[in-house]
Specification:
With 238 residues, the chain is an all-alpha fold. The protein is built from 13 helices and no strands. The chain is globular and about 60 Å long.
Amino acid sequence: MRRMMAVCNKELQAYFLSPTSYFAFAVYVLMTSLLFYSSFVYYQPSIVDYRLVLGDTLSMLLFVVPLLTMRLVAEEFRQGTDELLLTSPARVTEIIFGKYLASLAILVVLILCSLVYPLIMSFFGELDLTSVWLSALGLFFLGGSMMAIGLFASTLSQHQMVSAVAGFIILLVLWMLDSFAGNTGSALQQWLDPFALTNRFDSFTKGVLSGPDILYYVTLSGLFLLLSIQIVERKRWR
């Protein structure tokens, strides 16, 4: 645990020293603010429902998460510091989980930024607070699984942009999984629907805390963290 937290602290320092992190935060805040303005202020100021705003801003994670995770492992490969890290007393599992914890801390900051919008909306009418808090919790689980996928993509290359593109493609495929079979109600669509990233998020926005939905996001995160560990382990023994 101590070594994992040391890796986490190192990554957090790197996040706050990296211009890319500030760029990703700026893009997220700017775009979600514009979407909030168009969804709430411009079109429907009389409807005080956070879900109408959240649905528009959610897709920004597709672009921001790869930017925030692309350097996690790729930068170690590029600078050659992976050899020092892998020969240290820390196990690969501790290294990967330490980096993942740092990305989750950044995700919490993003979610706190998103909570400014329901706060503003609360001045114009009564909000369903249960829905707001569960939506924030759902955003944490959804974002956490996306961070794990981004971390996995970062293990695939020593080039950060290649990792970012790979992460974006994987996230986009999982995001649109339910669209591949079209809106036909076919057996294929029914089979793919539960695995789409956003479909599991809907219950949170409705104020429902569903065990299977949480399990889906936790399992997805665990799967990609496991794949990340396997890839780094393989490079360790080359």
